[in-house]
Amino acid sequence: QVQLVESGGGLVQPGGSLRLSCAASISAFSSYAMAWYRQAPGKQRELVATITRGGGTNYADSVKGRFTISRDNAKSTVYLQMNSLKPEDTAVYYCKAQQPGAWGNNYWGQGTQVTVSS
């Protein structure tokens, strides 16, 4: 049973930083592509950042230069370092694990709340 547990969310002032973590109970974690999504109230869930099993990364335009996704395969954990946070970054942040293969399953965590406010 795949389980993803996010942590690190909270309340931060504009311009501040947070680091989110997603711990995965996956036996072959290094073979999974991982991603962070977010969903603000009343809006659709949107992709924030991805990281391939090889370490290649991609970001939404809205977070480029401010957010960094990384992974530690030894700890089966993916991170999202968020700097220069803005009020519009306020959302529930979700971790997703993409099983390898054309018919691989996607697994989601329960989400962690990030609130950027003064």
Walk me through this protein's architecture.
This protein is mainly beta. Helix content is 0%, strand content 49%. The chain is built from no helices and 11 strands. Strands 2, 4, 5, 6, 9, 10 and 11 form a 7-stranded mixed beta sheet that branches. Strands 1-3-8-7 form a 4-stranded antiparallel beta sheet, with no helix packed on it. A hairpin with a 4-residue loop joins strand 7 and strand 8. The chain is globular and about 40 Å long.
Could you give the topology of this structure?
Elements: E1 4-7, E2 10-12, E3 18-24, E4 33-39, E5 46-51, E6 57-59, E7 67-72, E8 77-82, E9 91-98, E10 106-108, E11 112-116
Parallel strand pairs: 2-11
Antiparallel strand pairs: 1-3, 3-8, 4-5, 4-9, 5-6, 7-8, 9-10, 9-11
Q: How would you summarize this macromolecular structure in one to three sentences?
A:
The chain is built from no helices and eleven strands. It has 118 residues and is mainly beta.
Please tell me the overall pLDDT: 96
Report on the biggest sheet: 7 strands, mixed
Order of helices and strands: EEEEEEEEEEE
Instruction: Name the poorly predicted regions.
Output: none
Structural class: mainly beta
Shape: globular
Total count of strands: 11
Range of helix content: under 10%
| CA distance, first residue to last residue | 40 Å
Whole-angstrom Rg: 14 Å
Query: What's the tally of helices?
Result: 0
- As a percent range, the share of strand residues is over 45%
Overview features:
single chain, 118 residues, mainly beta, seven-stranded mixed beta sheet, four-stranded antiparallel beta sheet, 0% helix, globular
